[in-house]
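retry 2 of 3: previous attempt timed out while embedding phenylalanine. Reduced batch size to 1 and resubmitted. Inputs unchanged:
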Amino acid sequence: MKRETWKSRIGFIFAALGSAVGLGSIWRFPYIVGENGGAAFIFLYLICLFLIGFPVLLCEILLGKISHKNPFGAFLIAGKKAIWGKIGKLTIVTGFIISSFYSVIAGFSLGYLFQAISGNLISFSNASSSLSFFQSLAQNPYWTIGFHFLFISLSVGVLITGVRRGIEFGSKIMMPMLSFLLLILVIKGLMSSGASKGLTFLFSPDFSKITSKAVLMALGQAFFTLSLGQGTMITYGSYLPEKENVQKSCLPVVICNTLIAICMGIAVFTIVFSVGIEVDSGPALIFETLPIVFSTIPWGYGLSILFFILVTLAALTSEISALEPVISYLIDEKKFTRKKATVISGFSAFVLGVPTALSFGLLKNETIFGQNFYDIISFVSVNILVPLGGLFAVLVIGYRYGIQKATQKLPTLTDSIFSRYFSISVRYIAPLLILLILLDLLGVY
Ligand code: PHE
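retry 2 succeeded.
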């Protein structure tokens, strides 16, 4: 069967942007900016995008485009040895693992959407009431597993219809909707009484907070938010038509993803500060702090619904991108039909996600070294396997496929400057920085 391609460049951009904009940009970015020096951190993050985010993204898209294959086939063709095929398989496994627990957390936001519609998110007067509300839901296995199942089913529903009719068409609807909802939230935030305090918190640069830890966080964020290191962008690149210009397709993805993340920061903090509560800036932000805010501000009911629709849409376009590599592998290599490949992948990701769904309740205290199942699986995949996947992508392009050949595939107007930037980053800067991230995890510093 002929491999599907994106219908248009804009279709690819929406799909890749849909993958990039997810819980990482919507939920994590605002609070790590707030915690790590505001504008100073944003500046650092932009440097990381320039030094490694964008070049690694180009490598991955290129890997897909030169091979028109899933990550296994792509690595094998570019690396020309069986071992590279195995590395390709590792990235597919990484994406699959991520899809399993990402769906659980996304299921929380879907579940919260139902709570918002029922009007249950506007009746909190203090932090302990919203916290115990969250805990009672998160500890309920029927709730966590139920919404995990529903969320995976939605993803399977999109994926099963294929690249153009499913992923591309779905992203073309969901991404503009998401941007529109975000715009409403930003306007609402900027008009609220917390606007100046929120903007100050988010943007006033505090260079004293730029520690080596902040640098590593910025690097990790640049990686995770662009969905690198786990086969996703390789697979999306493999659906690009032959004549497509890779940089022109990728640059808007990086820019829009950054803008959306910053807008999300503006929306969240201006709204939170309008209530005058302490910003609990950790992960509790969206499930615990925001419901208190919705309970206090005018239009809280409508805003709570808009907000959780936005988070759910963002997570859905990311979840489908995490599952697509394994689906394309089963179609390419095992000759499955798309329907069979999608159902099997979706169901397996559901099963693997069940212990994660129970990690907030029944299995919360089943720990190894103080970490429960969710802590371990998310740490290993996001912090170890993802950087490794990115490292292998730059190594295979930089040293096996050949940087010159790769640069020729990236025609630009400013040829010499761009190709020098690309080759220095791919061959030296990116591998070095990724190694630093990995060494840090091993506690070398
Ligand atoms: N880019 C996504 C985010 O920011 C994370 C992700 C990566 C999701 C890969 C799916 C696949 O949330």
